[in-house]
Amino acid sequence: MPESTEPKKWWQGAPAVIAGVAALVTAIGAVLQALSSSGVTGLFSGPKPPEWEQVIDREYIAITSARVWSSQDITQKPVAELRQAGSFIVRGKIKGTDLYLVEYAPGQIGYVVTQHLVESAEWRRRREREQQEQHKQREIEIQTVDATAIVRVEPSTSIKDWVPFGARLSPPWDFSASVLQAPKEGAKQVGVLPPGKQLPRAVIAAGAVELLQKISGGEWYLIGSLNKPLGYVRGDEVTEIWPRHQPPQTPIGKFIRAWETQDKIGISMYDVETHFDLSIKVVCPDEKCDRISIYSGSSKNTKLDTRIFQSEDINGVWKKGEQVIAYVKIPRQQVEVRGMKLWLCIGTENSCRPYEISPASPLSP
After folding, report:
1. Which of 101, 187, 231, 255 makes an SS bond possible with 91, Cβ 3.0 to 4.6 Å?
2. Given this structure, which CATH class describes domain 254-356?
3. What is the DSSP string of 304-343?
4. What pLDDT is attached to residue 303?
């Protein structure tokens, strides 16, 4: 029978349309169910998003290392850990709990107990108070020094006498250091720096007194308090301590060399004219590391066996096997003088492993 050429009425195609819509709805339902079971349909665990007590969406700092959970049930196994002093975006506080919802990595959301995080502005205020308190402790320890009639020496323009702003000095651990009226043998003694073991460790690590002037490449130092001269100390009776280095986005200075130690520690060195910058890659060797110290001394047994130079401790929280990148400034003579050895110590306050990181050969001055 020949096919009719008469146009179909709209109701004649309805069964096919209905069947197509039903198939589409079924397919969409299957996709949504699959996404829901895989956790892709939302950032939150459970059937519905949590109730907010407070929406925050600001940067917070972890004041300690902290565990991260995928749900509000913190009896379960954590999925990540926040690093101490790391910055993270807190989305909000969960109603009726002591939990924040935190973006701990790009696109990664989890729950963290509130006591481990503070707003970044508050964290900076706490750090400033701690630094002020440390400064007060340092000054209290040297108030007995009699600084009358200190002989002043014209500042040198030599590179070997350059020090960064904030450089300080600490006495040796077991011995006191004499404070003299002038930078010469036989000068009148006007005070004494107590042995390092009598001072708080934080004070020794950051420097017990201000370094106001370096003389003859470190043979003598003028020390002070609140920028007021207190007298001179011999270079072999103190340790020169430089402040932590805040690296720029790209290295400043001329690249000199790179080397790797037998312990697989990688070092790159840059010449910044007044000093050298080092970029050091090291792996935490223990279950936990929270301190890195870089220091130097002579290969010979020097008087009192003191460290000649030390960078202020670099603090953090690192797990075993985690790579750390440390940036430090060091005096030129620590590399240019033959016989100097450069050391890195990584670990904790009570257990720190030393590694030699000296270049294979010294640079020519």
Report:
1. 101
2. mainly beta
3. GG--SEEEPPEEEEEETT-EEEEEEEE-THHHHSTTEEEE
4. 35
User: Would 52-121 and 254-356 be classified into the same CATH topology?
Assistant: no
Domains of the chain, by residue range, sit at: 52-121, 142-242, 254-356
200-203: long-range pairs with CB below 8 Å, 24+: 200/137, 201/349, 202/134, 202/137, 203/134, 203/137, 203/138, 203/141, 203/170
For the chain, the helix, strand and coil percentages under 3-state DSSP, each to the nearest 5 = 20, 40, 40
The secondary element (H helix, E strand) that includes residue 130 is helix 120-141
* pTM, 2 dp: 0.59
Please, what's the b/e burial string for 189-220 (b: 16 or more CB within 10 A of its CB; e: otherwise)? ebbbbeebeebeeebbbbbbbbbbbbbebbeb
Three-class secondary structure of residue 284 per DSSP: coil
Provide the terminal-to-terminal Cα distance of the chain, rounded to the nearest Å.
107
> Using CA atoms, how far apart are residues 268 and 277, in angstroms rounded to an integer?
8
Return the residue matching tokens 């400034």: 329
pLDDT digits (tens, 9 = 90+) for 12-58: 555 555 556 556 656 555 555 554 444 443 444 444 567 888 888 89
User: Both tokens of residue 15?
Assistant: 């069964």
Cβ-contact 229, 220 below 8 angstroms: no
For residues 80 and 101, give the distance between their C-alpha atoms in angstroms, rounded to a whole number: 13
CATH 2.30.30.40 fits 52-121, yes or no: yes
Q: What is the pLDDT of residues 57-91, one digit of tens each?
A: 899 998 888 899 999 988 888 999 888 788 899 99
